[in-house]
Amino acid sequence: MLISRRSLIASGLASALPAGVSYGAERPIRIGVLNDPGGPFADIGGVGSVVAARLAVEDIGGTVAGRAIEVLQGDHQNKPDVASAVARQWIDQDGVDIILDGASSACGLAIQHVCREKNKFFIAAGSGTSDLTNKFCAPYGMQFSFDTFAQARSLGTALTKAGGSTWFFITADYAFGHALERDATRFVKEAGGKVLGSVRHPLGTMDFSSVILQAQTSGAQVIGLANAAVDTQNTIKQANEFALIQQGLTLAALIMMDVDIGSIGLPLAQNLKIASPFYWDRTDATRAWTERFMKTKSKPPTMLHAGVYSAALHYLKGVKAAGTTDTAAVNGWMRSHPVVDMNNDSSPIRSDGRLMCPMYIYQAKKPSESRGPFDLLQQTTIIDAQNSFRPAGESECTLLRS
């Protein structure tokens, strides 16, 4: 039965991380979800990514080649050194075969570095920096959700060509924010616009008043929000208190998800445009999968959750086809077969690890248009992968030329 907007339900989830477990020849296949279950990225990734990975395990049948499958969750506290330490312990001591998600981009880059050293898979869903598949690409690294290049290209170009010719950025002061501002700046300029300046803030900032005042006095027509999750929500809420929209300024949230819009409410978000490779209400298949997801979680899945599901399922299909968890063998199958699942009809993985999936532009509905608490977005545009992600010819990734 397909999901109804009026029938979304929830229950709880408990997830534990075993430490120092021992295993024999028939040890379980272990999938590690390493992210931020209790901080600013908890709603968009967090425990929901574990739920998504477990749905992939369910869809492969619970076992592969006669071996059980376990999903582990780790908390890196948004600290790259912690992310590296957990990744090393998982691979060296706990027999983890693949690490998923990543959350903050700095942590994702740290995890990918460890996985490159250990010849293990890391597939990013929450780590948005496009550098993961560009200058820091890895033989067994992949990116299965959004990235900063695609977000900046779609929204930066569209808003500038629509008349927002001068920009000022409010940027999260870590790898993800820096990459997003850099990429958006490029496309604003290519579309004929100018960037008048930027200001950076730490992850988890609560008071954006001084930041918003700098943006307000810059004279820019568009305030580009190069941050994410709770930081973006708080920026928009406080920008409303300063009446930026009423003054004719445009807020461009370069990374925003439906869960963020639900948190701030449609009255503040109406008409805001976002770009995403996934929305729960896009097709019958995404609605049916969302119904399963929401037997455990109280909110619909985000594009990060969908990315983790796609990554886990494609990996397990590769293990099944190869008959082994050998990284090179599974990698060969994964990269030579398109991703097919509830959200991907036939999306190939490029040599740099970039999943070449369509991007969709959505507009937040007016409160009067919404038929329920999760009916938030209306699709306006489909952008094919070739016109969304970084062209292969512009990439610094040596894997594209090997």
Which features would summarize this protein structure in a list?
12 helices; 36% helix; globular; single chain; disordered N terminus; 402 residues; alpha/beta; four-stranded parallel beta sheet; six-stranded mixed beta sheet
The main pleated sheet reads as:
6 strands, mixed
Rg estimate, integer Å: 20 Å
Average pLDDT, all residues: 90
Strand order of the largest sheet: 2-3-1-4-5-6
Number of strands: 13
Question: What's the SSE blueprint?
Answer:
Layout: E1 29-35, H1 46-60, E2 63-64, E3 67-75, H2 80-92, E4 98-101, H3 105-118, E5 121-124, E6 141-143, H4 148-161, E7 166-172, H5 175-190, E8 194-201, H6 209-216, E9 222-226, H7 229-241, E10 250-253, H8 258-264, H9 266-269, E11 273-276, H10 284-293, H11 303-322, H12 327-336, E12 359-364, E13 377-383
Parallel strand pairs: 1-3, 1-4, 4-5, 5-6, 7-8, 7-9, 9-10
Antiparallel strand pairs: 2-3, 11-12, 12-13
Written account of the structure:
With 402 residues, the protein is α/β, with parallel strands linked by helices. The chain starts with 28 loop residues before the first strand and ends in a 19-residue tail after the last strand. The strands form 3 sheets. It has a 6-stranded mixed β-sheet with strand order 2-3-1-4-5-6, sandwiched between helices. The chain has a 4-stranded parallel β-sheet with strand order 8-7-9-10, sandwiched between helices. The protein has 12 helices and 13 strands. The radius of gyration is 20 Å and the shape is globular. A hairpin with a 2-residue loop joins strand 2 (63-64) and strand 3. Helix 1 (46-60) runs parallel beside helix 11. It has helices spanning 46-60, 80-92, 105-118, 148-161, 175-190, 209-216, 229-241, 258-264, 266-269, 284-293, 303-322, 327-336, and strands at 29-35, 63-64, 67-75, 98-101, 121-124, 141-143, 166-172, 194-201, 222-226, 250-253, 273-276, 359-364, 377-383.
